[in-house]
Amino acid sequence: MSVTIDITGLPQERIVFCPSPLAELGAALHALAEPAHHPRLHAWTTTTSAALKPELADRLHEADFMWNSTRSDILLPARPRETLAEELDDLDRMDDEKFVGSALEISCNSKYKQGAPSPLVDERMRRRALDLAAARGPRQTAFVERMLADPPGTRAWIRRLLEDCEEAFFADTWRRVGIQLAADARHKTELMRRKGLAHAVSAASSAMALEEDEQGSRIVVDKLVQGYTSAEGTGVTFLPTAFGWPHLFALHAPGWQPVVQYPVPAGDVGGAAATELVTLRLDALAHPMRMRLCRSLARGSNTTSELADAYNITAPEVSRHLAVMKKAGLLTTQRRGRYVLHQLDVSVVARLGSDFLESVLR
């Protein structure tokens, strides 16, 4: 499955790589809310959480449905600014219906791909937002009720919360990571200019690719959801993030400019394995005989005959199992004269846990 962004006929100047303070704050807040998703950030999340004043931590918990299990689209600006204040000013100019509809996207919405009316104007969506909030506890229910009853007041409350986060920890964090993200965006922009969009997209994440044929051009983002959007008349914005791994966000809601938030290379050690490849590797290792073969293949190189003798099965049986493992990229092979030696690629297996985590959280 994947999210497809149609860019047929889109001028290259409408494809932008640029850091966003608001998007990075959203990524940082998600890491604080779900530290188990981000083991590489353990030191930062632990230190930052411990330093939060109880009152601010309490308010963050109240509003965390906007960045917890999913990310509200309002936190992924299509036109990034240099400062958080400027991006919050842009949010203030958004109409209430669009803002509230996005802010209350607190679970995977079955109508996200088709678009849904705002709960401010649609009673069914209003009931749905309240039901989802009720499942998350009385505090979030009260917050959603307040937002539906008083959008301007609640929007001002959200802005103050984000400004207080900037004062408490994010300003220092942004000074540190903003330089890195700006450099990454410049690199991707120059790569796009010199070698083309396909190189820039794949350099941003190996879970993204540019596909071109007689029907047009599209950016395909490997996700566990199926989605489609068009950049016609708008453009595409790519937001680098230092806090994002293992997530790769693709904003594809109808009526919104497509935005992709990708983890910077430093947070993508070894490259991102496609979901299909992770599935292939897990299937390959699920067979009991292939698991037994791994015991020998992990310790050293073996020929097909050696493995057949060791496990008392026929050489053709061994060959069939090895073919499955090789297709999944789990083996290395080398030829010595008339012998072919097989060995488990331990580095690939060692990454499988993080690859699986990335594929399901992407």
The geometry reads as elongated
Structural class, from helix and strand content? alpha/beta
Integer-rounded radius of gyration = 24 Å
Work out the number of β strands. Answer: 10
How many helices does DSSP assign?
A: 14
The profile of the biggest β sheet is: 4 strands, mixed
- Low-confidence sequence ranges: 266-271
Q: Level of helix content?
A: 40-55%
Strand order of the largest sheet: 3-4-1-5
Question: Strand-and-helix sequence, N→C?
Answer: EEHHHHHHHHHEEEEEEHHHHEEH
For the terminal residues, how far apart are their CA atoms? 12 Å
Q: Could you tell me the mean pLDDT?
A: 87
Q: How much strand?
A: 5-15%
Describe the protein's architecture and organization.
This protein is α/β, with parallel strands linked by helices and 362 residues long. The protein is 51% helix and 14% strand. The chain has 14 helices and ten strands. The protein has helices at 21-33, 42-51, 54-63, 84-92, 96-103, 123-134, 138-149, 151-195, 197-204, 275-286, 288-297, 304-311, 315-327, 346-361, and strands at 2-6, 15-17, 208-213, 216-222, 227-230, 236-241, 249-251, 259-263, 331-336, 339-344. A four-stranded mixed beta sheet has the order 3-4-1-5, with helices on one face. It has a four-stranded mixed beta sheet with strand order 2-6-8-7. It has a two-stranded antiparallel sheet with strand order 9-10. Strand 3 and strand 4 form a beta hairpin. Helix 1 crosses helix 8 (151-195) and helix 10 (275-286) packs antiparallel against helix 13. The radius of gyration is 24 Å and the shape is elongated. The chain starts with a strand and ends with a helix.
